[in-house]
Structure formats: structure tokens, C-alpha cells
Amino acid sequence: MGHGITDYGTNSEDSVDYADFAVKVAKRVNDGDDSIGILICGSGQGVCMTANKFPKVRAGLVYNKNSAEMTRLHNDANILCLPGRELSEDQIREILEVWLNTEFEGGRHERRINKIESLTK
Fold first, then answer.
1. Which tens digit of pLDDT belongs to each residue from 24-81?
2. How far, rounded to the nearest angstrom, does the alpha carbon of residue 55 sit from its chain's CA centroid?
């Protein structure tokens, strides 16, 4: 889709702790090293909860094209969290396309984002 990627794993079928991988991605987005990140775990919940511990991260759990659009359009999400056990490869591809191509709307939504960010200062 025209984006460079850094893959932080995993690279096996072995059980792993999803938080280890979520922290790597969230830290890079939080620190400004990357502008966006994508995390996938079984339900998407664990990586989303972990990523949102970082003050400059707005991670959203996305499960269809509409939620992909809204997390970007209204919430300016900078990390996409996907439930890998719940979605087909085609669904993930469609969600990625929408999420990557939707711009933040700003306006009243920016005021709300600023309120959320002020909670972690």
C-alpha cells in the first residue's frame, strides 16, 4: 500500500506476551519515531489496552471498515489494533486501506482529543 514497515514480530507459532510487542510499537509512536502503528493480537483488546498506556498514543480497536474510518476521522487514532482471530485476511486488508486513507477531520474533534491528552499531562 506504499508504506514502509518495521515488523516487530512475532515470527513463530509459540505463545508470546502480546504486551512485549505492543510496547515496542507504542513507544515508537509515542516518541515520534513513527507517526502510526498497527498491532494485532487474538482479540485486539490486549494490545489496545497496552498501547493506550502511553500518553501520546490514541490506539483504537477496529473490527470493520466503519470503525476504521471513525477512529481516524473523529479520534485521530495513531495506532490501529486488530482482532486477528475475528477477521479474515481480506477484511484486514479492507480495514487497513480505509484506516490508512482516512484523514482526521479536526474541528470539534480536535478539542476532544486535546481534552483526552490533557488527562495524561
1. 999 999 999 999 999 999 999 999 999 999 999 999 999 999 999 999 999 999 999 9
2. 14
CB 47 within 8 A of CB 41: yes
pTM: 0.93
The 10s digit of each residue's pLDDT in 94-109 is 999 999 999 999 889 9
End-to-end CA separation in angstroms for the chain: 35
Residues catalogued as catalytic: 41, 74
Domains of the chain by start residue, with CATH: 18-118 (3.40.1400.10)
d(CA 15, CA 22): 15
Sign for the CA dihedral angle at 26, 30, 33, 34 comes to positive
Max CA separation in the chain (angstroms):
45
The contacts of residue 121 (CB under 8 Å, 6+ apart) are 55
